[in-house]
Amino acid sequence: MDRTPHEIVNPLSLADPVGYSHALVVRPGRLVRVGGQTSRRPDGKVVGDSVAQQFDQALANLVEALRAAGAEPAHVVDMCVYTTSMHSYRVNSGTIGSVYRRHMGRYYPPMTAVGVTDLMDPDALVALTCTAVIPEDAADDLLHRAEARELVEEAEETLAADPLAARDPGVRPGRTRP
User: Fold this and answer.
1) Are 37 and 62 a contacting pair, CB within 8 Å?
2) Dihedral angle sign, alpha carbons of residues 67, 72, 75, 81
3) Phi/psi class of residue 114: alpha, beta or left (left: φ > 0; alpha: ψ in -120 to 50)?
4) Is pLDDT of 173 > 50?
5) Model pTM greater than 0.85?
6) What is the residue-averaged pLDDT of the chain?
7) What confidence tens digit (pLDDT) does each residue in 139-167 have?
8) Where is this region: Disordered (predicted)?
9) Residue 22 lies in a domain
């Protein structure tokens, strides 16, 4: 998804942004905050020997957290990259950009990259945080899809519980014939 429901603002009076936007006007909706995602696998082990490799796994983890909360990459309104090796981040910016597009598409929210001396996990070279806003209409759409899914599940349960009853309109689901 390369488009965002929010309004990107890049004033002509500022330098052209490369890999980020200057500002974003956010539509009302549900706020999702994703905290420091590093390159940890589900078993807790940090993977990747380079900033680019760790950025790849950390961004995959961030997108997974977004989706688990009902958001998509296009809902991100702010992202921050923390790295213990800003030099390596700069040198590998082309690779990092390709990794970013693979996970996030060609949508670039306001972003900040910050060089730090240390991260909580001593093996981590990168940590990512973001804020996303699921627009109200998208949140309503998710709610309607969840309600529709529940109705389908109820119908499937009824059919599985008593398939003969479902064929005879005079018999209520869950009841047996006399």
Assistant:
1) yes
2) positive
3) beta
4) no
5) no
6) 81
7) 455 544 555 556 555 555 554 555 444 44
8) 154-178
9) yes
